[in-house]
Structure formats: C-alpha cells, structure tokens
Amino acid sequence: MAKILIVDDDNVTLSILKQVLYKANHDVTTAIDGEEAIQHVKSTGFDIIVTDFNMPGMNGIELTKEILKINQQAIIILITAYISVKAALESIKLGAFDYLTKPVDKEELLLSIERGLERLKLLEENSQLKKTSKPAPQKVEFKFETKSEEVKKILAEAAEVAMSDSTVLITGSNGTGKEVLAEFIHKNSKRNKSTFVVVNCAAIPEQLLESELFGHSKGSFTGAIRDHKGYFEVANNGTIFLDEIGDLDTPLQVKLLRVLQTKQFSRVGDPKLITTNVRIIAATNRNLKQLIKEGTFREDLYYRINVFEYHLPDLKDRQDDIIFYFEKFIKDYSAENGKKIKEVSSEVKKHLKSYNWPGNIRELKNIAERATVLCKNGIITEDLLPERIMETKDETENEEVISKDYELGKQELLKEFERDFIKKHLKKR
User: Fold this and answer.
1) CA distance 48 to 131
2) β-bridge mates for residue 49, sequence order
3) CATH number, domain at 281?
4) In this predicted model, what pLDDT tens digit does every residue of 213-243 receive, in sequence order?
5) Same domain flag for 346 and 379
6) Phi first, then psi: what are they for 220, rounded to 5°?
7) Which of 265, 8, 313 is nearest to 150 (CA)?
8) Whole-angstrom Cα distance, residue 37 to residue 7?
C-alpha cells in the first residue's frame, strides 16, 4: 500500500482516479488545487503525488517546484493533455518522476506508481547503507537451484568466474532467471560484502537514466537543487546489474564504454572525473549482434561486456526444471497462505510438461500461486490450472492423432501399390 495524493481541479477526474487507486489497495487523499496540495504535503508524508498539469492558479510545474522544496525525494507524476507534453518534459528536468497523457490509461498509471515505489525503495536502501556501521557479512554461498544439466554447467563455470572482476553478459528470454544468475555471481564473488544494484535500462525514461547511472551536480539543469549520486557511486566496490542493456540509447552506450575502459565517469553537468571500482553484469533478451548490424548497439561495447557470456535456455527446453520449480513454488506459497498441499497430481504434471511456457519461470510461478490459493483438498488437480495450460494437451493429442492417421494412410497406400504391381506383373506373364 502506498500513500498517494491526487491533485486535480475536476471532481469527476478526482473521483475516477481515487477509485482506481483505491481498488489497487492504496491509501488515497485528494486536493482540488495546488494550495490545498501544499498543505497536505506539509502535514502528511506521501509516497506519490499524482497531479494534473493544467489547473487554475498554481499549475503542475509550479506545484512540482513547491513540493520538491518540501521533500526533495518526492515522486511526482504529472497528468497532461497532449499539447502540454513539451511542458511535462520540462517538469521532468525539474525533478518530476513521470508524466501521463490524457485520457489516463489505468494500467499505465498503476505501472508508473509501481516504478515510483521501486525508486523510493532504492533511495531508502541507499540511505540505510550510508547510515549503517555494521561489519560486512562473511561470504556465503548463494544457490541457484536447478535440475537442468545445461544450467548446472553454466553455474559451475559462473561460480569460478564470480571470483574475478570480469564483465559478464547474460542472455535469454524474459523470465528465465537472468537477474537470479547475476545475483548468484555477485554473492559468490569477493564483492559480496558490497552493494548489488539492479538497473532496468528499459524501465527508466531516457532523460532520467543518465542521471540515475552517473549522478548530476547541483545546478546542472533546472531543478537540480542538490548534488545527486548515481548508481556507479552508490555501488562502488560492488556490482551493477544492467538489465535490458539492449535498450540503452547510443550516448549512454558511449559513456558506459568509457567507464569500462577507464573506470572513470563524470556526473551530468560536472567535468570532474570520478573513479569507480564497480563490476558490471549485463543482461538482455534481445539479439545484440542483430542490433549491431542495425546500427543501434555499439560493437566495441558488445565485446567489452561479453568477456563471459551465458545463455539461459527457455523453460520449455528445461523439462527437468518444470516440475522441480512448480513443486518448490507450491511449497513456498503453501507456507505463505497457511495451506497443506500433499501432492501434485500426475495429470497436472503432464499438462505442465506439454505446455510451451512463453512466460518461462515467472509464468510457472504465477500458476503455482494460483493453484495453491485455489486448492481446497490438499491435492493440486488439473481443474486448478488456467485454461491455456489445459488446451496444450488437446493440441498435442490432435497432432498425435493426425500423425497416426497419416502413418496408417501411408501404409494402406503402400499395400494398394503392392497389390496393383503384383496384378500387373501376373497379367504380363
């Protein structure tokens, strides 16, 4: 649950947004103008402020400035008409977190709020890291559980590579466990006492990503009211996991290449070089070689990050892991929901093994959660699976029937050919 303030001079819009966020289990407060919003912000701490851009009196940009004077880490999401997008981008430079265009899409709003909460969580973790004076923990082995022989080979080599400072590139479809492998490498390295920072390059707007990665100096742009440390400073002596690196735009690719080559970078708006001792692990679900051919990814950066490359296969190609992970997730969700699951039926296992798993492990985990929550008699049965899982078996059976019919037809044709050949041969004699 997040504490959210909605600011809009239109009561209908306020009511609709409040209902959407209330249904998403958020604690919602409303204000009809900037002045009322400022009073709320001063008296109550909010995680997120969602505000209309065009309002009488104090508009969105002016309200953003005032809120950031009160709370520099406030997450502000602006709602704007299409004609005001340029102004909304200006507000991003001032320090607003995101903007949405009208009419507001419910899913986009909830996703923006989720990203804002992730930002707050990271800021809080960074703050705690600065405050803590506890001794660093001793190295402990971080396990990546699998029954797949292919993945076991990857882990065996990755455990050795972990003790070096070499860059690693992890490829594979979404949901195959790329972040888990990156954390495995970090936790089994000599850097495990330091920070492991996860950065999703596709989730952060381009205009913010450079500042998030490298930081900015006070006064470097409008609204930069204080120096800001980026991830490369926060994670010094630790590891940065750059997920979806294939979505990084060209200017940032150049700056990242410089960090890899020289171990130095500069904040936005400050020519001073800062030295960093960060290990980079990158991941992507895209074909970087194809992106190089298309001219959207630098070839020299590719070879810099690709000292060691590990490709995690899709779940459908890891048959031994399907039931292993499913039963593991069932056990976890049973404990979480106070359930006693005794077994998974053989029919369920058959369906799981025949399904294609486009969402990979993430999709399997969701289905395990669903089945656990709905289970009433302690046995996971096929009626607890989503319809799409059930359809797979029918398709497979149809293919088998078609294949059998084809084989029978082919045999019958051969027999008929043999009979005709023999008849013709006997007539000639």
Assistant:
1) 24
2) 5, 76
3) 3.40.50.300
4) 998 888 777 767 788 888 999 899 999 999 9
5) yes
6) -70, -25
7) 313
8) 7
